[in-house]
Amino acid sequence: MYNVEWLIIRHGKDDTMLNEVKVIICGKEYKIKTAEAPNYVYALARALETKITEITAASGSSPYAASIMVAMALLDDLNKSNQRLDNIRDQTKEYVDEAGRTRIERDAAQKEIEVLKSKITQLENMVKLKQLSDSI
Fold first, then answer.
1. Cα dihedral: 96, 98, 104, 108 (round 10)
2. Same domain, 34 and 68
3. Same domain, yes or no, for 66 and 125?
4. Which domain holds residue 133?
5. Residue among 32, 66, 73 nearest 49 (CA)
6. Which of 52, 23, 50, 51 is nearest to 39 (CA)?
7. Would you place residue 19 in the very low, low, confident or very high pLDDT band (cuts 50, 70, 90)?
């Protein structure tokens, strides 16, 4: 059912190894040139054929119509996944920005703490001098 032929395609200076994978989906043979592993392509072909077969069995549709329905469902899944990915990226960017702002605030607070510690030390020294001058 599945056959693999190895091809080497020249792209400028680089040699890229491509697989020519033959798969049969709904009784029709397709040759696919890909850098993906043949077993991965076989798994995709099996999953696609399973989805098409499920739809044709459930609705009596032709394999062509079932293929269109599968394609629409997969595009819907892809679009929704891409939207979720974009939302995650946006949320991550917000977290990174917030972390940067928080780090700046922390650094400013640490500088202020150091200034206040220095002022406390100066005031303590002034109190000691005042006590010393009063005792004399």
1. -150
2. no
3. yes
4. 62-136
5. 66
6. 23
7. confident
